[in-house]
Amino acid sequence: MSGEAPTRPFRPDPAAIAxxxxxxxxxxxxxxxxxRQVHDWLPVQASxxxxxxxxxxxxxxxxxxxxxxGCACVMGWTILFNRAxxxxxxxxxxxxGNLRLEIVWTLxxxxxxxxxxxxAIQVNQVLATLEGKVRVSSGSEAVAVAGxxxxxxxxxxxxxxxxxxxxxxxxxxGVHSTELHLPVDRRARLELISMDVLHGFYVPAxxxxxxxxxxxxxAYALTPTREGRYRLRDSMFSGGYFSANQTDVVVESEDAYRxxxxxxxxxxxxxxxxxxxxxxxxxxxxxDRGWAxxxxxxxxxxxxxxxxxxxHDA
Amino acid sequence: xxxTIPFDPRVLRxxxxxxxxxxxxxxxxxxxxxxxVIGIQYIAVSLxxxxxxxLLAMIMRGELLTPPADLVDPTVYNGLYTMHGTVxxxxxxxxxxxxxxxxxxxxxxxxxxxxxxxxxxxxxxLVPLFGVILMASFLVPGGPSGSGWWAYPPVSTQNPxxxxxxxxxxxxxxVALSGVSSIMGAVNFCTTIIRMRAxxxxxxxxxxxxxxxxAAQTIQLCGLPVLTAGAVMLxxxxxxxxxxxxxxxxxxxxxxxxxxxxxxxxAVYVMVLPIFGVFSEVFPVYARKPLFGYHVVAIASxxxxxxxxxxxVHHMFYSGTPxxxxxxxxxxxxxxxxxxxxxVFAWLGTLWRGKxxxxxxxxxxxxxxxxxxFAGITGIMLATVPxxxxxxxxxxxxxxxxxxxxxxxxxxxxAAIYHWFPKFTGRMTYEGLGQLxxxxxxxxxxxxxxxxxxxxxxxxxxxxxxxDPEFAGANVLAxxxxxxxxxxxxxFLINIVSSWARGAKAPANPWQAIGLEWLLPSPPPAENFGxxxxxxxxxxxxxxxxxxxxxxQESVVQRSLKEA
Lengths: 314, 564
Known about the structure:
Number of strands of chain A: 12
Radius of gyration of chain B: 23 Å
Number of domains of chain B: 1
Order of helices and strands of chain B: HHHHHHHHHHHHHHH
Number of helices of chain A: 5
Oligomer: heterodimer
CATH superfamily of the largest domain in chain A: Cupredoxins -  blue copper proteins
Number of domains of chain A: 2
Structural class of chain A: alpha+beta
């Protein structure tokens, strides 16, 4: 035993090489297959950012599957074939290490994660330049929006106001709504404002998330690319009725959007229906049991009120 | 031999206030300064709180079984999840790992006790104290804190009822006391490891568990003061009207997030590093092989320590963090995969061509390693900014986090309990019940945590008391898994209690393991080797190498047999 040379009496065994090669090929195929499955695990892509995020995630799923299966195969092999028979009290091969192998498994993961990091930084940059376009045209302000026909002019800025627990969207045209309407394929500029605590502006179908920080107005931009109705969820815990704090983003054609704006302005301003307020009232009726919470802020006065029961696409 | 003992011999005469210590059960309820007593105190208290935290989790999963908030009021749910996280981290994981530090470090390095036995006992007794404070918050008007274990302001400083003593107040007090306790422990563990090793035990003859414990406790010393400062400021904002984090008073809520995560991300490494140590101890024993690449594994622990202190902003990618900062912290976070990967490959290398014995501790380590590889990959995904922007603050994070915290760290805790139980209680556990515990835990944790990843990818935010119906499938599976995990604790408890009461007597070295602690009788005498500290002549894990660990090994073994 003790005579065994420093761990690698390297004698190529054709059977072993073939087995490893087959395992690697199978693993590659499985990883490729997994990376193709990711689109089934994610909501529909509804913004210009979504494909970049999904492709990066697919790449990581592929690489991750390869590493995971590779390690799992080694574990499975040892569990199946390197088991000590009952009452066998012998020791295993006394291998203390292998410098070459250790260098390889330090450098290869280093290269892989750095490659992913560099790629992700590039994706970051692409996503940032998408936003950068807005900054270039931001001098003209939002007054032009209503008049310009399907131009590159961005929509907005639309004020996104987060409260405990409601969303309110105020358009430069004067429309107040609890439902965010956006024209498809046009950049929308948002101003994220929180009136009380931290909130998170999160639209899964857009793959975008940005916290609303009280005391700051955060400029934000996005481009919806698919018509439909998508959930907007509060993603940063905001207290008592946090989970009820969701509404919809409606992405529609330019014409429908403009019609909605005009129609909305004709309607009266009324207090919005509000899930948190309903839950709060229910709680009062039941004798105010439960643990302490601040009461919900008064529902905003809006022209258009969201109906949470309307089915959403994602 | 005694002149070479590298510690102050006064440690040997540290007082043990309860007479007849080894056979007197009352020592476990006293201010005892024996590290082995303190270790068991820590572990017993933490296992009690594991049950409390698990019960809270099962109520939460009961609530999440259906989309609307129908089992408990949403405010109650918020309190439950806050307390679940707080109890599991501050009252289960930190104490249980400090318990292992107490039990294992002195015998593993041949020291008779900790460097500061009284400080050690004081650090322990803070745990039940802040445990009671935290539990008392269930009883104050308004209920316990409901702002999450992050306690982000302004939610955490809203104080709806306006009382001075409120759930959030008690929560901050408990967390601050926990920090004080941990710092006291860290001073002790670091000093003990640095100053009290047996003659001949150079750094690179030290067991990996001690390396990882030292690496983890270094994080405690660097990071905890920052969290404690943040907690004090939060307390002042909540109770005394300051505005460190209140924008209307010129403060900044983001500042708290920096204070919080500067410690609380490394805190995960404080918990996982000792478990890496457990894996590194357990795999060689049951694979009957030396640890593959011991030196690199040892050094990798400190690489993790260093990197863990410069990654915290990855929790704030979507909080308004500038692009350059996102990129920097993405790269540092990704770099952690390298030392961690080294360890994973070293364990796989240890298994390779071994003679595996699938005992309960080995099963938990294999299961934990399997889950950890998965969690490492989802961790890389979360480190990537564009992906994190989508899945951050969703159930994907909850799934990832629990795969680390439960399916890796807690598996390691169970492995450590089964592995060292005979050593410190003198009794063997029942193998069949242990394996049943493993099977149920493995099934339960996959069922519980895998569907969470899917729910998160589809966009289900974390911390919600109610959710849209499209997430119902994943949540039903997760809830079933959680209840299964509840069932899985039964064989564990039965095993531990009945083994300790009437299990078979354990020999000094039931697993034919190599290590100083296995050269002691089971259970070890109060001062371990006392004045007969063996001289270490070789590195650890010499399985199959046919070498002795210490000088005159045979006589040391004979002494352990005689004393038992």
